[in-house]
Amino acid sequence: MAQFCKRELLSDSIVIGVKLRRTQLLDQFDRALTLQRPMPLKAFPKNLEAAWNNEFQRTGSGDVKITIQEQTIYASSAILAKRSDYFQRMFEGSWAECNRSCNNQQQITDDSSINDSDDCLLTA
């Protein structure tokens, strides 16, 4: 027996659970999914890959400099912020990184020790 009440009488949300039995339609749906082949990946054009690699290595190409294990990547803070919530909060929020021109951070792993370093890992 179903019971109903007016929406304004509800103080919080309602969660409704549904349990379905295995049906012929569901079996057909499962078979259709398993028979389909995955979509083939399109080849990434080599000239585009070379252009992006060149862009990451050019000193004046971005407003962010990231140095990891003595390798430097130049990037755009606008692109990083659009593609990552983390970088969006970093560049557009009230983090200290928003107001500093150089943010020195060190990565600690099991086999490494902490060293004072003058290398700038992130420059915005």
TrEMBL record:
<feature type="domain" description="BTB">
    <location>
        <begin position="62"/>
        <end position="124"/>
    </location>
</feature>
<dbReference type="InterPro" id="IPR011333">
    <property type="entry name" value="SKP1/BTB/POZ_sf"/>
</dbReference>
<protein>
    <submittedName>
        <fullName>3503_t:CDS:1</fullName>
    </submittedName>
</protein>
<dbReference type="Pfam" id="PF00651">
    <property type="entry name" value="BTB"/>
</dbReference>
<dbReference type="InterPro" id="IPR000210">
    <property type="entry name" value="BTB/POZ_dom"/>
</dbReference>
